[in-house]
Amino acid sequence: MLYELALEIAAAAHNGQVRKDGEPYIRHCVRVADGLDYDYFKAYPVIHDFYRAVAVLHDVIEDTNVTLSDIKSGLGLSNTSNGHILDLTLLVLTRNKSDSYLDYILKIKRFGLATAIKLCDLADNLRNASPGNLKEKYIMAVYILKEC
Questions:
Q1: How many CA atoms lie within 13 A of 103 on its CB side?
Q2: Which H or E run includes 80?
Q3: CB crowding 61-87: b at 16 or more within 10 Å, else e
Q4: CB 60 within 8 A of CB 17
């Protein structure tokens, strides 16, 4: 299955990375992918597997030296329609450092799969966010992605 391949790529890419609480970073990626376990997606196993594969890879390009080309090659998706969806979604989810956070969130909002993945990412990030600017930023992003 595609998800298992994507998980291997993400685990290798994030090897040695930890979150602020010391937890291995890959656990965050898995929780984000698991957040897409909606009944609607489960009714379509091939789509569900692909979406979870994209979700588990959501931070690889931004936080590691692995490239989009490496990912597509590792998944066997070069020059396929799913490869193009993967390209678009991961590029939208990868924040350009020159963009404001608001512009980044507004860009994500235009793409359904990217929005679903980002909402799962934000939900996981909010689990341990301490009160302050970062937590408020995440809450604002959730509001924009869901309500605006």
A1: 6
A2: none
A3: beebebebeebbebbebeeeebbebbe
A4: no
pLDDT digits (tens, 9 = 90+) for 31-75: 999 998 776 666 778 788 899 999 999 999 999 999 999 999 999
> Exposure of 142 by Cβ count < 10 A (0-12 exposed, 13-18 middle, 19+ buried)?
middle
Helices (H), 14-111: 25-34, 39-42, 45-56, 60-63, 68-75, 81-93, 101-109
pLDDT tens for 68-105 read 999 999 999 988 888 899 999 999 999 998 999 999 99
- Does domain 2-147 fall under CATH 1.10.3210.10? My reply is yes
Looking at residue 18, the DSSP 8-state letter turns out to be B
Other beta carbons less than 10 A from residue 93's beta carbon: 25
